[in-house]
Every structure is written in structure tokens, then in C-alpha cells.
Amino acid sequence: MIRRLTHGIYDYPAFSKRFNQQLPPQMDRVALAFARKFQWSIVPDGATALHSLGLDTQVPARFVYLSSGPSRVYDILGRPLAFVHRKTAHTTISDHFAATIVQAIEALGREGIDYAVRTHISRLRSATEFRKIVKDTRSVTAWIHDEIMTIATLAETHEAQT
């Protein structure tokens, strides 16, 4: 059985036996469906990026994505999904995961990122994938790129230890 989320966007709802009800849609997947439908480049912004990487356990009240398309808010089963038009180097990164890392680091700020955050991110992908991410993010702000290189080095260290 499929569920209509909004005009032209549908999903297969997951059911929770624990709560005995349908689960809400995964907003990242819904946002990616909009991006495919309208051929936008999107990147999760701020709290949305932190949540999608598992750096913040709180679910954002409003999921916000930077987009190459128009600014618009959609109601997805009572939850707002916002797209904010922004054409920057961060929205043109081809790898969605790399762009999410950039936005999360930017949301944390220079003082907000520590060893625990770097370690968490470094365990999300392989060292090979992080080498590609380092290349893909060369055009971002220097301090953010430096953090990504540090995370890539941590990924290589973790991989060597296992």
C-alpha cells in the first residue's frame, strides 16, 4: 500500500509494531524525491544536516534544505519541509553526503567541532570514500576543508586499526 505525501510524491509507509502505527516518512528521502522530480541540487541545512548525520538526536521541527530551485515550504503529513533557494559552492557539491558534512560542520562552527564529532563522522564512511570527499570539497571555506581532511585522516586511522 502506498501513501500520498503531497502532489506527485508517494512512499511505502513503514509500520511500527512497538507503537502500533505507521511511522512518519523519512524527510531526507522525501526531500531527495523533490530534488529528483524538479531536478534541483539540494543540501540539508543546519539542524537538518546534524540530525541526518546522527550528530544531534533531536528531530528538527522544520526540515530545511538549501536548494538550486525556488524557496518553498511543503506540508508533508503535518510536518514542514522547506527548500531555501541558495546558489553557493556548498549546494553544487555533487556528493550528497559530502555536502551534508560541509553543512553540519558549518552549523557547529569552529568552536563546536571536537574530537568526538570528528570521530563520529569518520566512522560513517570508508577511508577511500573520504579521500573522494576531500577532493569534492576543495571549493568550500578553508577551515571547513581542513576539518574534512582531519576527518579523512581519522577514517584512515580507524580503518588501519581494524
Write up what this structure looks like:
With 162 residues, the chain is α+β, with helices and mostly antiparallel strands. The chain has a domain at 93-162. Helices cover 45% and strands 19% of the residues. The protein contains six helices and eight strands. It has helices spanning 27-38, 47-52, 96-112, 115-122, 127-136, 142-161, and strands at 3-6, 9-11, 15-16, 21-22, 42-44, 63-67, 72-76, 79-85. The strands form three sheets. The chain has a four-stranded mixed beta sheet with strand order 5-6-8-7. A two-stranded antiparallel ribbon has the order 1-2. Strand 7 and strand 8 (79-85) form a beta hairpin. It is globular and about 45 Å long.
Task: Please provide a brief summary of the model.
With 162 residues, the protein is α+β, with helices and mostly antiparallel strands.
Q: Give the strand order, joined by hyphens, for the main sheet.
A: 5-6-8-7
The largest pleated sheet is described as: 4 strands, mixed
C-alpha Rg, in Å? 17 Å
Q: Span from first to last CA?
A: 43 Å
Number of strands: 8
**Count of separate DSSP helical elements:** 6
Q: What form results from the Cα inertia axes?
A: globular
> How large a portion of the residues is in β-strands, by DSSP E?
15-25%
Q: Would you identify the regions where 5 or more consecutive residues have pLDDT less than 50?
A: none
Which sequence of SSEs, written as H and E, runs from N to C?
EEEEHEHEEEHHHH
SS content category:
alpha+beta
